[in-house]
Design a protein that fits this description.
Elements: H1 2-12, H2 20-41, E1 45-49, H3 63-75, H4 82-92, H5 104-109, H6 111-130, E2 136-141, H7 147-155, E3 157-158, E4 163-164, H8 167-178, E5 186-191, H9 194-198, H10 200-203, E6 209-212, H11 214-222, H12 231-241, H13 255-271, E7 276-279, H14 287-295
Parallel strand pairs: 1-2, 2-5, 5-6, 6-7
Antiparallel strand pairs: 3-4
Helix pairs in contact: 1-2, 1-3, 2-6, 6-8
C-alpha cells in the first residue's frame, strides 16, 4: 500500500518543494527494483511499458483509502486540506477507464508520474554502467494516438503555463550525475486505438519501435469490451442470428483490426525503414493470428 500512496503523493502534492523528499524516496523505491531486474538480465533486451493504469485505479476511492493516504502524507510532513482534497477526488473520478487519463495522457497531464518512473529507470541503468554492466533498454509509451504526444514525452515542453522534462533530458540529467558515458536506449509507441494506427507514419518520426495492443485495438475498433459482465451472454445471443463478430475476439484478431495493423506497419516503414514492430504475447494464440503475423 505504501507504493500506491507514494504515487498518490506525487499526484496530489500541490507544493513540489514540500514533497521533494517523498518524490526522492519514490524514485529510489522504483530504481532499486529496476536495478535488480536489469542486473539479472544484463544486456538482454528489456522493454519497459511506462505506467498505463487509469487515474481511477490510482486515486483513493473509499473513505478508508482516503484516511490511510492522508495519514501517510502527514507522516511525510505534508498536510493536505481534507475538504479541498475530497472536492478534487469528485472531479477526478472517471467511470470510463479507457477514455480518461491513461497512457501518454497520464504522462502529459501529470508529468511527475512519468518523470519519477523515468528517473528510476535511468538511475538503475547508470548505476549498472558504473559497475561495468551493460543494459539494453527499450521504453514503451502506452496509448499513443498522435505524434505530438510522443514528441512531447520524448523532448519535454517549456510553455508559459506548463514545463516538464522529456525522456532525453531526464536521461542526460541522470548521466551527468553519475559521470559516465552515455548508454543507448530506444523509445517506442504502444498502439491501442485506430487513431494511433492511422497516424503511425507521423508517430514514426519520433519512435524507434511499435508495439500493437491487438486486444485494445479490437475493443476500440468494434466497440466491444472484455470488461463488460454481459460480454459472453450478449455475444451468444448475437451469434445465434449473426456471426459477424467472433465470440473469441479476445483471441482472434478481426480482419478490420488486421488491416489497421498492416497499414500502420506500411506507413511507419515508409518514414522509418529500420523501425521494429511487436505485439503483446497473449495476442499470438490461434492459427489465424499466426498466419496473419507470418504473412506480415
Amino acid at each position: 500500500s505504501d507504493k500506491i500512496n507514494f504515487l498518490r503523493g506525487v499526484l496530489f502534492s500541490k507544493n513540489q518543494e514540500d514533497a521533494k523528499d517523498l518524490y526522492k524516496q519514490f524514485i529510489k523505491i522504483q530504481g532499486d527494483e529496476f536495478y535488480k531486474i536489469f542486473k539479472i538480465l544484463e544486456d538482454a533486451p528489456i522493454t519497459i511499458r511506462l505506467l498505463n493504469t487509469s487515474l481511477n485505479d490510482i486515486i483513493p476511492m473509499y473513505d478508508s483509502e482516503v484516511e490511510e493516504f492522508l495519514k501517510f502524507m502527514k507522516q511525510h510532513n505534508i498536510i493536505i486540506d481534507v475538504a479541498e482534497f475530497n472536492r478534487e477526488l469528485c472531479v477526478l473520478k472517471d467511470n470510463n477507464y479507457a477514455s480518461g487519463v491513461i497512457g501518454s495522457r497520464m504522462g502529459i497531464t501529470y508529468p511527475r508520474v512519468y518523470e519519477s518512473q523515468l528517473k528510476a529507470i535511468f538511475e538503475a541503468i547508470y548505476r549498472l554502467k558504473k559497475e561495468n554492466i551493460n543494459t539494453n533498454i527499450e521504453i514503451a509509451i502506452p496509448l499513443v494516438n498522435y505524434a505530438e504526444e510522443i514528441k512531447e514525452l520524448t523532448f519535454g515542453t517549456n510553455l508559459k503555463n506548463t514545463s516538464y522534462l522529456g525522456i532525453a533530458s531526464i536521461a542526460e540529467e541522470v548521466r551527468k550525475t553519475f559521470k559516465v558515458e552515455k548508454v543507448p536506449y530506444k523509445v517506442g509507441a504502444i498502439i491501442e486505438t485506430p487513431a494511433g494506427a492511422l497516424n503511425a507514419d507521423e508517430i514514426a518520426r519520433y519512435t524507434d519501435f511499435f508495439i500493437f495492443d491487438a486486444v485494445s485495438l479490437t475493443e476500440k475498433t468494434l466497440g466491444i469490451s472484455r470488461n463488460t459482465s454481459t460480454w459472453l451472454s450478449y455475444l451468444n445471443s448475437y451469434n445465434a442470428s449473426c456471426s459477424a463478430i467472433d465470440i473469441n475476439q479476445g483471441f482472434f484478431i478481426d480482419e478490420s483490426v488486421q488491416e489497421l495493423i498492416n497499414n500502420a506497419v506500411i506507413r511507419a516503414s515508409m518514414i522509418r525503414s529500420n523501425a521494429k514492430f511487436g505485439l503483446f504475447i497473449d495476442h499470438v494464440y490461434g492459427r489465424k493470428n499466426m498466419a496473419f503475423f507470418m504473412e506480415m
